[in-house]
């Protein structure tokens, strides 16, 4: 029985390999066909670019460029398919162009100012030759099949017609022994075909990445743009937070302490004259000090929750769950200490999501999973409510997204009407020293 | 009554010592970190330990950890934990071993001397003293639970006071009702929550909390 199993497995593996080789061959053929298109596209584009320089051609350029980018993106995807991901390097399209000649010219400028446009053109030209590598798998398969046909007996009619043998792979096929030799060679080629497609496609993919991938300058530029955006968001958020704290202190604890001073002054004056009144005032003063403390405590909780400082993210999220009227299950796999700002951002995000679940979703149960894997912190919050949460709608979700963006983090929410709502957050961050105690 | 005190803020520590001595407690040791606390507890075996949750050197829950460890080393050692903030999570950890002699209070409660001293005596006697803030939060998180919903407003109030650790007499005083009326409310609550009747006040409170924690 075991032998049969192994045999089935082996057959399955071969079938999978053949299927993959077949698919790769098709993609290769498409690349080769595309390289033909590349030549014409190159010529057309170059033509219009030159025409543009001498004044006309602006009309066609944006349209032709669309075709160029489409073809290049196809090749980028083909490269990604064989494990060589190529990012799309184009400058982001401005939100809107005017509908007139000015808009059209701005569109041309957007195209011509993008270094990726010129790299596309160079790729188009070189790909006319390089793309032919895509034909290699098909060619090998064809040659192998031809050998099989010739070796299987086709050599006889050919021999009859010409009077001499037929060359196949260094073998003159003019007798059955030589035909058998050709069959063996063809079999070897067929075998080789299974392995040749991937490397051929890979070679082309690296060539594609070299020219069609983002240039280092472009990568840096987009990174700088992203950082500038998130920095300004972070600064805005922080300034707003400081304003809130200042206001809360001014209207809350500070005011109460001033009141306390007044009351104590009155107590001092009444101490001997009206001891009863003084006692009442003292009781008031004590109550007022308790209130001031409570306000300060709430303020601290809003800035940096003590349980987060004391126990770290996992336990702080558990504490959130305990405090929530919902049934909250927390699973955490974070084998170390996270950077404090990340911890805080995730804590407040989870807190916000729990509040949302309680207020809007009608859920009974919330599952929270925290996992740190490959220098990325994954947080997942799922409820069994009625769904329909919308990133565009509430400011809460938008706030979470902005909070996470500061750390290059992402928020992904799936909330079909009828539920359930599943929120996934991912923040790249490294763990520092492993936690010593988690009890 | 002999007290070991652990509090890292000098002013607060001095204030507590003054307060305790004014009420005729004997402060046999006053320490400012978790390690010294463990040593002092092992050496003095006090009638009660009053401990701040957050202590040096880590300023995390060192005090809480030291207290829990001390309870394992000296079973039944009464401990009153003080904190700037109350976390249900910590309250549950303290109550987890199911024996009495546990208190968990906000530092604010020191301001009300009589209640604070009352809480100390209760914990030293093997009872419990839970901060109203913890109890209120517990009630909120279980408000949706079925049996709790069956209680009347007055019964809920009585349950809260029971959970804080009040005796029948204290409940009667707080609600200005007769002690008999309080006892009647309590037996109604036991019946509605399907808890076995028990005269021992400490086990009574633990039973309530165990139910709330479930």
From TrEMBL, chain B:
The modification 4-aspartylphosphate is found at residue 52. PROSITE patterns: HTH_LUXR_2 (PS50043), RESPONSE_REGULATORY (PS50110). It comes from the Bacteria. Residues 144-214 form the HTH luxR-type domain. The lineage of its organism: Bacteria, Bacillati, Actinomycetota, Actinomycetes, Kitasatosporales. Keywords: DNA-binding, Phosphoprotein, Transcription, Transcription regulation. The keyword ATP-binding does not apply. Signal peptide: none annotated. The keyword Phosphoprotein applies. This is Response regulator. InterPro entries: CheY-like_superfamily (IPR011006), NreC/VraR/RcsB-like_REC (IPR058245), Sig_transdc_resp-reg_C-effctor (IPR016032), Sig_transdc_resp-reg_receiver (IPR001789), Tscrpt_reg_LuxR_C (IPR000792), WalR-like (IPR039420). Pfam families: GerE, Response_reg. SUPFAM superfamilies: C-terminal effector domain of the bipartite response regulators, CheY-like. It comes from Streptomyces aureoversilis. Residues 2-122 form the Response regulatory domain.
